[in-house]
Amino acid sequence: QVRLTERGGGLVEPGGSLRLSCEASASLHSIYSMAWYRQAPGKARELVAEYTNAGGLNYADAVKGRFALSRDLTKNTVYLQMNNLNSEDTAVYYCTSGAYWWGQGTQVTVSS
Q1: What is the pLDDT, as a whole number, of residue 30?
Q2: Collapsing DSSP states into helix, strand and coil, what is residue 70?
Q3: How far is CA 71 from CA 9, 42, 44, 110, in A?
Q4: By C-alpha distance, which of 51, 38, 43, 47 is closest to 6?
Q5: CA atoms of 100 and 32, how far apart (whole Å)
Q6: What is the tally of helices (H) and strands (E) in the chain?
Q7: For residue 19, what pLDDT is reported?
Q8: Mean pLDDT, to the nearest integer, of 34-50?
Q9: Cβ contacts of 24-31, under 8 Å, gap ≥ 24
């Protein structure tokens, strides 16, 4: 079993930034590719950003140019830097390994 622990959510004003982190209990080399999803109230869970199996990056159109995915293999941690946030980004953000192992989620609220 792989445990994923997200941190970094919170309340931020429109135009602000947050950085989420997701620490895995196993080496990132040994588990499925990591990704971030989000789920807003009343909406389906949607992909935000992911590492592809080929080692590339993929972003949802809604976050391209504003969000950036990165990782620190020495810390088994993946980060999601979120800039220029708006109200549409309000959601619970989930870290996942291969859409199989999931974290508990962290709330991001964008509001003035």
Answers
A1: 78
A2: strand
A3: 17, 30, 26, 24
A4: 38
A5: 8
A6: 0, 11
A7: 98
A8: 96
A9: 24/76, 24/77, 24/78, 24/97, 25/1, 25/76, 26/2, 26/76, 27/73, 27/76, 28/71, 28/73, 28/76, 28/78, 29/73, 31/2, 31/97, 31/98, 31/101
